[in-house]
Amino acid sequence: MPLIHFYWLVQPKLRKNPLNMAAANTTFRPRESLIPNPKLRLREQVHEVMRFKQFSLRPESAYWNWMRQFIFFHNKRHPREMGKAEVEGFLTHLAKARNVAVLRRVYSACAMASVFVTL
User: Fold this and answer.
1) Overall number of domains in the chain
2) 28-74 pLDDT, tens per residue?
3) Does 13 lie in the same domain as 67?
4) Could you tell me the pLDDT band of residue 116, with boundaries at 50, 70 and 90?
5) Same domain (yes/no): 89, 63
6) Is the same domain home to 115 and 60?
7) Please, what is the Cα angle at 63 between 44 and 3, to 5 degrees?
8) What is the CB neighbour count within 10 angstroms for residue 8?
9) Does residue 73 lie in a domain region?
């Protein structure tokens, strides 16, 4: 959240006592507190979380492509049904069958980690 918008949210509280930062801290939400809407499809949930974390469109689309490949690799199972073994299997497949570079495998692992953490 940009500082200007943050100040605008707490401005009425700070006018009464400009040195009272406790009022400013009560309206601030940490970035990790977003729970995506469970009624949305997985793509929209991912988009909602990425927008909340202020990802730009290019990394968001790259993450979604890695997530999509992961889901299709496991015959369209939902990520909630999968765990560590499936992620390791997918990364092994990327390394051995598709000869994907290490940096791209790390990027795909980050994408899958963001799915399992947020969804």
Assistant:
1) 2
2) 555 566 777 888 898 898 888 888 888 888 988 988 998 899 999 99
3) no
4) confident
5) yes
6) yes
7) 75
8) 10
9) yes
Do residues 26 and 54 share a domain? no
Domain containing 117: what range? 41-119
Which tokens go with 104? 């791209």
Give residue 73's pLDDT: 93
CA gap 96, 21 in Å, rounded: 54
Around 22, how many Cα atoms within 13 Å sit in the side-chain half-sphere?
A: 3
If one compares 15 and 84, the residue with the highest pLDDT of the two is 84
pTM score: 0.66
* 24 and 54 share one domain: no
Mean pLDDT of 97-108: 86
Q: Is the Cβ–Cβ distance between 79 and 119 less than 8 Å?
A: yes
Which tokens belong to 67? 């997530």
